[in-house]
Amino acid sequence: MIRSMDRLPPTLRKPGNLVFCGALADMNRSPIHTALCLLPFLALPATAQAPSSQVATPPPVSYSSVSQLNLLLSQLEQTVQAIKGDLSNLRIERWKTDSGTKRQAEANVDSIQRNLQNALPEIIAQLRNSPEDLNGTFKLYRNLDALYDVFGSVVESAGAFGSKDEFQSLGNDLNSLERSRHAFADRMETLAGAKEVELTRLRTQLRNAPTAAPAPSAPKKIIVDDNEPPQKTTKKKPAPKKSSTPPPSATPATTPPPH
Predict the structure, then answer these.
(1) What angle do CA 207, 16, 23 make, to 5 degrees?
(2) Prediction pTM value
(3) Residue 32 neighbours by CB distance under 10 Å
(4) Any idea of the CA torsion for 51, 53, 55, 57, to the nearest 10 degrees?
(5) Any idea what the Cα angle at residue 38 is, between residues 155 and 41, rounded to 5°?
(6) CA dist 83 → 19, 78, 108, 116, 119 (Å)
(7) In this structure, which of 69, 170, 220, 225 has its CB flanked by the most CB atoms within 10 Å?
């Protein structure tokens, strides 16, 4: 189990990723499980940094990768069919235990059967369409991990309260499911390593890409309408000029003195 965050790659040591990693640190899982649950975050920086004008076409999937996936899925589907058959032959009502334990076991069996019938086939079909999709591979692994936990509880109860034949057949199915789970964990680790290499290459290309020059502004256009009638100009009358000589001042009339 990963007990120290210093063992994680730098990409996974971001605060948002450590919250998820810390939640898994206390779970009784293998180191590969804790590391793989964080791998979907590896694809985020590339999509966030790549400009729209430089979207890279995904490389074609290799023949060996497709062949490996088809083999793993074929083995998983065989295990699923075996689990379905053995669960249908299970006689929980005959177990030597209390009714509460029987009801819990029956509820777990119903949950497993619904998953094998509906959810798991859909995930497998999606992964066949995108063989190297990291998120799709993680989704399948997480589903197998949940199935393993619930199915393991049923197998344990069958060993304690059921018949020897029930326990033996269910135990073989559990071992096959465990092998498939580990196989997809290993495949996810390989895909995650390839993604890290691809991210490093994309970051290098972005750093070395020349900065695009700003586009020149378009020249302004002036539209002249030849049919527009000319505007009439009105002449203003000139204002009368003011006289520069002041008007004669009025002098009061004087009377001659008496003799």
Answers:
(1) 140
(2) 0.60
(3) 16
(4) -170
(5) 140
(6) 35, 9, 13, 9, 15
(7) 170
